Amino acid sequence: MTTAHRIVLASRPKGAPTADNFRHESFDLPAPGAGEVALRTVWLSLDPYMRGRMNDGPSYAAATGIGEVMTGEVVAEVTESHDDAFKPGDLVQARIGWASHGVSAGADLRKLPTDNPAPLQSYLGILGMPGLTAFVGVNDLLEVQSGQTVVISAATGAVGTMAGQLAKAKGARVIGVAGGPEKCDFAVKELGFDLCLDHRSPALRDEMAMAAPDGIDRYFENVGGSTLSAVIGNMAEFGRIAVCGMVAWYNGKNTDTAPPLPVVWRNVLTKRLRVEGFLIFDRYDRLDAFLSEVGPMVADGTIKYRETVMDGLDNAPDAFLSMLEGGNFGKQLVRVGDDP
Amino acid sequence: MTTAHRIVLASRPKGAPTADNFRHESFDLPAPGAGEVALRTVWLSLDPYMRGRMNDGPSYAAATGIGEVMTGEVVAEVTESHDDAFKPGDLVQARIGWASHGVSAGADLRKLPTDNPAPLQSYLGILGMPGLTAFVGVNDLLEVQSGQTVVISAATGAVGTMAGQLAKAKGARVIGVAGGPEKCDFAVKELGFDLCLDHRSPALRDEMAMAAPDGIDRYFENVGGSTLSAVIGNMAEFGRIAVCGMVAWYNGKNTDTAPPLPVVWRNVLTKRLRVEGFLIFDRYDRLDAFLSEVGPMVADGTIKYRETVMDGLDNAPDAFLSMLEGGNFGKQLVRVGDDP
Fold it and tell me: What is the pLDDT of residues A149-167, one digit of tens each?
């Protein structure tokens, strides 16, 4: 019998969450049943969406119950398997939450490629859901081509980091938009964007017009808000906008930054724009293409990215609270167990 | 030498135009030069966009000058040709304005099909620009399929009339939106729409929700305004919106009827909608397909439509002023000359 550890939701936060909302527990790992696999966690991903799961009430996904393990995606090693598709030592992505060990149906696991030297934890970030999101947006919705001018909002976030570099790799001119000089410097000097604008600038619209004198061909929309206001009037004819997120407007905030709908509609009509929304869970049929195309670029260092790593499952709540305050730079991870 | 007649812009309207803004003139038709063709007008199309050309100031197209012939599209007969592509007796579409005769470069003419028994004037309406607009929207942008729920705004207008009937012919369930009971009755009883809602109803959004309980798969957008507000929250997942016009918001009117952009963006994201604008002048490569597919349906009466016909070029100003007040039902035409 394995003694395992997990972090459960102790209470619902009122406003910003605190350490008191979490509780460490030990538990005996149950034996896997038929079709199930026992897992040992190596890496845990921390993501902003988890804040929403701590709330009760209606959302696009069920809330975490009081006393239940915190939701989360991990990279783990198979320790015992009753599913013929897996054997001990296999490395997988799993959704067993903030826990040192877990049992999962084999059908819910995704085996990691064995022929790729990219770091294990990259499958939670740059080669995980955020990376795939960027790949689908740039390739399938925006169909970015050489010579185009592409704007990437939330440019140094997990999605924007990859989206901008994929667009650069296709020969596009890439303008990032990020919050503050440190992130903008990173986008240009490390990620290789051609330019980065600070979305806090009151002159953002004019700066965007100067940055894209021939118009914006493609916009990867992660934020809405003042960035969209600056982009929409500067779109080029037959431009496209992939709507991937609108973080500026989550929880009903900042709606005064929205451009008026008649202005957006007029731009859509007279410039013949295409605006299309997507959610990554519809698009996992693209995972193999993504990993085979982008995996080697991550492994050989062509694609740059940042991670913020916390050691130890017990420190996951602190890392999570810090991330919600912007204390991370790039993907927030927790190292839960030793590398296999 | 042919003595011809034309209506010119005598003065710019202040507010609503009046008969005083127009003047009848006689003129000697010049002989056509090399590559030119002389024409005798049979039918003149009157369209709302002509009101905009009477104004000075910036627009998407140049204003008509004082003393210049009023802009307009006609169906005409070739009387003399110095272009090898045309011979006397050919019937063409031309842009010679409100005139009994004119001279045009052959390159600016479009020859009418000779193998189609549809009425000549239909090439200015149901088989002309408005019809082609509907065809491109329904087929190329919306890709309407059997079983889908399709909403058509401005349902009894020249574009909406065709768009709804094309969607019905594809097996879709068609909900029209129009102004007032007479137009709604026409949409259902004559055009065969399944349902028609009055955009003046204060309960339009609830009525739309009841009319489309499984959501709206396709929306042919001609108006913006309260119709869009009623549609956007009732769109189905993976729905599409073809933005063809936004007449409710022209001249900056009715902008208080716009749904807030964050609401539109949230619908685009969570429902994975595609919103795309188009202008028909990009799409004339589809004219042959349109005429060969839809021409026979107009000729055999499958496609219904209405026309309001005024006789005589001298009465064109009165017909135009009446049309601007909603006095027409369906396409407004002027019979300028005898059928060939």
Answer: 999 998 998 899 999 999 9
Beta carbons of A271 and B277 less than 8 Å apart: yes
Question: What is the pLDDT, as a whole number, of residue B185?
Answer: 96
A111 & A145 share domain: no
Highest mean pLDDT among A120-134, A247-261, B116-130, B228-242: B228-242
Number of domains composing chain B: 2
Q: Please report, for residues A21, A132, A159, A292, the alpha-carbon distance to residue A287 in angstroms, rounded to integers and kept in the order given.
A: 35, 7, 15, 9
The domain of B151 spans: 129-280
DSSP secondary structure letter of residue B69: B
8 Å CB contact of A272 and B282:
yes
For residues A292 and A272, give the distance between their C-alpha atoms in angstroms, rounded to a whole number. 34
> Who among B249, B272, B279 is closest to A272 (CB)?
B279
What does B264-297 look like in DSSP terms, one character per residue? HHHHHHHTT-EEEE--GGG-GGGHHHHHHHHHHH
Q: Taking CB atoms and an 8 Å cutoff, what residues of chain A touch B260?
A: 255, 258, 261
Contacts of B275 in chain A (CB under 8 A): 268, 274-276
Within a domain: residue A285?
Answer: no
Q: What is the CATH number of the domain that holds B251?
A: 3.40.50.720
- Give the β-pairing of B110-111 and B91-94: antiparallel
pLDDT in tens, B245-270: 877 776 566 777 888 899 999 999 98
If you measure CA to CA, which chain A residue comes closest to B267?
A277
Interface of B with A in 243-302 (CB under 8 A): 243-246, 249, 255, 258-262, 264-266, 268-279, 282
Q: What is the pLDDT of residues B300-312, one digit of tens each?
A: 999 999 889 999 9
The answer to whether residue A58 neighbours chain B at the CB level (below 8 Å) is: no
Three-state SS at B37? strand
Q: What is the mean pLDDT of residues B100-106?
A: 97
